[in-house]
Amino acid sequence: MPLPYLIYPEYRLVHVRGRGVLTAEAVIQHLEALAADPLYVAPMRKLIDYRNVDMSGFDFNAVRRVAAAKEALEVRFQGERNAFIVGSDLTFGLSRQHQSLMNDTEVQVGVFRNFEDAAQWLELPVPESVLLAAWEASIHR
Question: What is the pTM of this model?
Answer without folding.
Answer: 0.93
